[in-house]
DNA sequence: CTGCATCCGACGCGATACTG
DNA sequence: CAGTATCGCGTCGGATGCAG
């Protein structure tokens, strides 16, 4: 870890936390990840060796700790970073100019994020299957299935001959924009950017379903309440 | 600027802000710096070329803007980073383990920080000169003079045959610890870690004088009110 | 003094392969 | 799945010097 040679507390924290990937790793822990693989899943582009060394560094710094042979969790110091993460996220949401360059789009990340954030209680207890079709996504990540059944949500990338209740067709960019609240689902449907077919009564719940993302609250309130990430 | 390939607002903000030096540069702007040299003074170890490229990047990102031929200031987006800086600083103050390694000590930074943070109103209007002597500082930065006269504080590194009102002798480490509120000035005096000689009535004000650092408020309150950096 | 260009070294970081 | 070892590239960033 490179130091700044300054006694300033900000220098102390940034030299630890503001290295590449580090704050995103913390984000994954806040979002509920516990294992090496959980973290990797939320950070597809990090190399295992780097992740490994970051975890070691964060352990030594007392931000995370091992809770088992292969599980970690945030310490008190780590949990204290949550407001920082939230504030930085809110700043990015409001002030970042990058407006979703196509290189920022990643269907896998999007769906993974959905899976862990959606509230299954919105749908009936019986199994409900929602298929997403992104016509502009790279081959192999165009079609996704979210399977909600008795309080659980599963994510599938392969067609298991599902009995699909709802089919959502749109561009990856549109769905991502909806997910991070740059537009509302309903508006996107109205303007034909999203096409929904299937069970009408279930369809009405989609907007509400898609609002439970922790990010989604960013757009709506200026000063932003505690988020329910987990 | 290296990107993460993620749409997450946190990824957007960190890829811009969490590169080496960047947040410390913002800190310097918040502290009132406007010119290239102001920033450099607070970041003695940054190279001019790197500072230059960071300023350019931040301009493009809309965090700072040129206000004149050679002055910059924070934009609205930049000002919005202040809570982030404060939170990160508070985190570092509370949770950073590094406990002032000697490599973090820097007499120049310390004195520069003092000069801009001290409240001259504490002392009488007439010229008051306080000399600091750090016996463990590197040669050439052992002796410093703070000159307070009618509402202004100047900093000197050379002996101008001053008529010194107060002489403060201690280690650089001790003074730094006091400055960032790891201990109080009075306690350090009591335990003989700081030796003060000179005008007794002025000496009594030192503790109060040294409490006006923006950092000093970190230690005292858990949730920390708006700081007066400027 | 301000700001930038150039050079070059160090090492942060990524890719891959491999082990338990 | 959870990491470690190795290798090598790329770039960050530090030193110096110069131009405005």
Outline the structure in words.
Two copies of one chain form a homodimer. Chain A has 230 residues and is an alpha+beta fold. Chain A has two domains: 9-95, Winged helix-like DNA-binding domain superfamily/Winged helix DNA-binding domain (Arc Repressor Mutant, subunit A, Orthogonal Bundle); 102-216, SCP2 sterol-binding domain (Nonspecific Lipid-transfer Protein, Chain A), CATH 3.30.1050.10. The first copy, chain A, contains twelve helices and seven strands. The first copy, chain A, has helices at residues 9-17, 22-30, 36-42, 48-60, 76-79, 82-95, 107-117, 172-179, 185-190, 200-203, 206-209, 216-220, and strands at residues 64-66, 72-74, 128-134, 143-149, 152-156, 166-170, 194-198. In chain A, the strands form two sheets. Chain A has a five-stranded mixed beta sheet. A two-stranded antiparallel ribbon of chain A has the order 1-2. In chain A, a hairpin with a 2-residue loop joins strand 4 and strand 5. The two termini of chain A are 30 Å apart. The first copy, chain A, binds a DNA duplex (20 and 20 nucleotides) through residues 2, 19-21, 35-37, 40, 45-53, 55, 69-70.
Strand content of chain A: 15-25%
Which spans of chain A of ≥5 residues are poorly predicted at pLDDT below 50?
A: 219-230
The CATH architecture classification of the largest domain in chain A is 2-Layer Sandwich
Mean pLDDT rating of chain A:
86
Q: Which structural category do the helix and sheet elements of chain A fall into? A: alpha+beta
Radius of gyration of chain A: 19 Å
> Oligomer, anyone?
homodimer
Number of strands of chain A: 7
Order of helices and strands of chain A: HHHHEEHHHEEEEHHEHHH
Strand order, sheet with most strands of chain A = 5-4-3-6-7
Helix content of chain A: 40-55%
Within CATH, the superfamily of the largest domain in chain A carries the name SCP2 sterol-binding domain
General form of chain A: elongated
At the first level of CATH, the class of the largest domain in chain A is Alpha Beta
Continuous helix count of chain A = 12
Quickly count the domains of chain A.
Answer: 2
Give the end-to-end Cα distance of chain A, rounded to a whole number of Å.
30 Å
């Amino acid at each position: 870890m490179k130091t700044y040679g300054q006694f300033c507390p900000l220098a102390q924290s940034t030299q630890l936390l503001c290295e590449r990937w580090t704050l995103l790793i913390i984000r994954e822990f806040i979002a509920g990840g516990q294992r090496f693989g959980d973290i990797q899943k939320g950070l597809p582009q990090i190399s295992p060796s780097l992740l490994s060394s970051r975890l070691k560094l964060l352990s030594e710094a007392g931000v995370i700790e091992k809770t088992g042979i292969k599980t970690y969790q945030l310490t008190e110091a780590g949990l204290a970073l949550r407001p920082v993460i939230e504030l930085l996220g809110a700043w990015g949401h409001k002030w970042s100019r990058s407006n979703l360059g196509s290189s920022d789009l990643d269907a896998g990340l999007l769906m993974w994020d959905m899976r862990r954030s959606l509230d299954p209680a919105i749908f009936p207890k019986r199994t409900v299957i929602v298929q997403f079709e992104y016509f502009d996504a790279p081959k192999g990540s165009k079609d996704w299935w979210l399977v909600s059944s008795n309080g659980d949500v599963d994510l599938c990338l392969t067609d298991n001959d599902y009995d699909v209740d709802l089919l959502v067709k749109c561009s990856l960019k549109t769905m991502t924009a909806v997910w991070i609240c740059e537009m509302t689902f309903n508006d996107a449907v109205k303007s034909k950017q999203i096409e929904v077919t299937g069970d009408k009564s279930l369809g009405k719940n989609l907007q509400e379903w898609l609002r439970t993302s922790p990010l989604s609250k960013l757009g709506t309130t200026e000063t932003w309440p505690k988020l329910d990430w987990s």
